[in-house]
């Protein structure tokens, strides 16, 4: 038999009997190993299913000294800020973010926010820089209570950065809920944004000490 296998190009040494392989396969799927495999799978599913609850920080109906609009998104952030300004949530607006700062200011002015109540911070290129460059301006403005306006999936990281760098200032979150419904996630690119937020939350925690559990409920 071995001679026949050799003639047709099959090496019998590398074809162990099934009876020999089964115990090894069973050892791979023993209960402890199955649990280790299932934990990341279940965690990944939970992260995806509960992104709204895990990523969103909404402090409710709060008023403040300044509305702080963070850059990014698709105009839903200045749109939400304009709504809050008209509701009398805060008398002044600070717009933060490189690149889209001017566009956000123009949007606010077109929707009725007076130019003389808007301050620009156009140097920040990420969320940590939003906080780093905006906090000195907020202190100069004498602001003690701030409402952060950003997309719902971005609120936890944003609140964490500002509270981490300025614990003496009270920060609230009143986000835009554009793209909050799951049926909009693919068309608006929300799925990609929400998944990347988990990576960024971990990165900010490890690299900058910004805890994802820091924001006020």
Topology diagram in text:
Layout: H1 2-7, H2 18-28, H3 31-49, H4 51-55, E1 66-70, H5 76-86, E2 92-96, H6 101-110, E3 118-121, H7 127-140, E4 145-149, H8 155-165, E5 170-173, H9 190-208
What does this structure look like?
By secondary structure, this protein is α/β, with parallel strands linked by helices. The protein folds into two domains: 22-55; 57-208, HUPs (Rossmann fold, 3-Layer(aba) Sandwich). The chain is 49% helix and 11% strand. The protein has nine helices and five strands, in the order ααααβαβαβαβαβα. The chain has helices at 2-7, 18-28, 31-49, 51-55, 76-86, 101-110, 127-140, 155-165, 190-208, and strands spanning 66-70, 92-96, 118-121, 145-149, 170-173. Strands 3-2-1-4-5 form a five-stranded parallel sheet, sandwiched between helices. α8 links the parallel β4 (145-149) and β5. α5 (76-86) packs across α6 and α7 (127-140) crosses α8. The longest helix is centred in the first third of the chain and has 19 residues, at 31-49. It is globular. The N and C termini lie far apart (73 Å). The model is unreliable at 4-8 and 34-44 (pLDDT under 50).
What labels describe this entry?
Rossmann fold, 5-stranded parallel β-sheet, 217 residues, single chain, alpha/beta, 2 domains
At a glance:
The protein has nine helices and five strands. With 217 residues, it is an alpha/beta fold.
CATH architecture of the largest domain: 3-Layer(aba) Sandwich
The main β sheet shows up as: 5 strands, parallel
Q: Tell how many strands the DSSP assignment holds.
A: 5
Instruction: Give the strand order, joined by hyphens, for the main sheet.
Output: 3-2-1-4-5
**Count, helices:** 9
What does the overall shape look like? globular
Number of discrete domains: 2
Low-confidence stretches: 4-8, 34-44
CATH topology of the largest domain: Rossmann fold
């Amino acid at each position: 038999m071995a001679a026949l296998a050799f003639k047709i190009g099959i090496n019998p040494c590398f074809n162990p009997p099934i009876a020999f392989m089964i115990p090894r396969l069973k050892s791979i799927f023993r209960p402890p190993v199955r649990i280790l495999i299932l934990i990341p799978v279940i965690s990944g599913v939970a992260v995806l299913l509960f992104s709204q609850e895990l990523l969103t920080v909404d402090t409710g109906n709060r008023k403040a000294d300044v509305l702080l609009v963070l850059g990014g998104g698709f105009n839903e952030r200045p749109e939400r800020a304009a709504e809050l300004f008209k509701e009398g949530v805060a008398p002044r607006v600070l717009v933060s973010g490189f690149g889209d700062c001017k566009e956000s200011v123009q949007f606010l002015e077109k929707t009725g926010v007076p130019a003389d109540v808007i301050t620009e911070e156009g140097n920040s290129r990420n969320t940590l820089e939003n906080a780093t460059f905006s906090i000195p301006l907020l202190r100069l403005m004498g602001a003690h209570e701030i409402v952060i306006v950003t997309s719902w999936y971005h609120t936890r990281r944003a609140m964490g950065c500002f509270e981490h760098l300025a614990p003496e200032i009270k920060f609230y979150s009143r986000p835009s809920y554009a793209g909050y419904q799951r049926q909009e996630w693919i068309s608006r690119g929300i799925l990609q944004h929400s998944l990347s937020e988990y990576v960024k939350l971990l990165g900010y925690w490890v690299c900058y000490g910004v805890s994802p559990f820091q924001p006020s409920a």
